[in-house]
Amino acid sequence: ALKVETIIDLDTLYDRAFNVLKEAVHNGSKNFGLATGGTMLPLYERIRNSELDFTQCESVNLDEYVGLPKAHPESYISFMKQQLFNEKPFKKSNLPNGEAQDPHEEAARYEALLQKMKLDFQLLGIGENGHIGFNEPGTAFDSETHVVELEESTRIANARFFNSLDEVPTKAITMGISSIMRAEQILLIAVGEKKRTALEALLKGEVTEEIPVTILKKHPNVTVLTDLVI
Ligand code: F6R
């Protein structure tokens, strides 16, 4: 069941997001699935400035670009260090290695790691096209961690973080839909008009692989925080 909370004021919305996460920590969640992207910035800021302690917790990130050096400021490992890990280290943090010689082998390694650990909590943003992680429209619901070809629209949406569209990687490694669905609890944050179509599909549409986020209707414990009135 989806628990949808519409909160127009963004400061209030992100305070609420922080509290959902804090409650999970206090209730004993140990393994956290994390996301990158603009949506997460105000949440990570709140975590950085909080008393929360993750030194007994483990994190796994949803995705990473293929072929971008780890030291590149827009690699997701760099993003996570800047936004969270430098200030709030976990006992162990895992991301797909975007520099692996063989990205497919790396995806298999990451999936094996995910199969071994139960994710207590998964943070999700949403793509304008309804993607979660980098599972683009048409991805099988039973997909595991895999290498994806990024959609042109996704690369354009992310080009704002790079000097030009050419610099945006064309591939990524992402947790699959089934990997995401195994998490005990999910917090989805959808903020801004650009996310309206995708959110509308989740709240009003049918479950379809053409809009990956719609699978969340089948998950037993999803909180959706949004500033959009649908
Ligand atoms: C990020 C991720 C993506 C983003 C989505 C929204 O790790 O997996 O699914 O959550 O693309 O991105 P923003 O927040 O930049 O709009």
Automatic annotation (TrEMBL):
InterPro entries documented for this protein: Glc/Gal-6P_isomerase (IPR006148), Glucosamine6P_isomerase (IPR004547), NagB/RpiA_transferase-like (IPR037171)
GO molecular function: glucosamine-6-phosphate deaminase activity; identical protein binding
Stretches assigned to the Glucosamine/galactosamine-6-phosphate isomerase domain: 15-219
GO biological process assignments: carbohydrate metabolic process; glucosamine catabolic process; N-acetylglucosamine catabolic process; N-acetylneuraminate catabolic process
Gene Ontology, cellular component aspect: cytoplasm
Pfam family, one: Glucosamine_iso
Keywords: Carbohydrate metabolism, Hydrolase
SUPFAM superfamilies: NagB/RpiA/CoA transferase-like
Record bears the keyword Mitochondrion: no
Name assigned to this protein: Glucosamine-6-phosphate deaminase
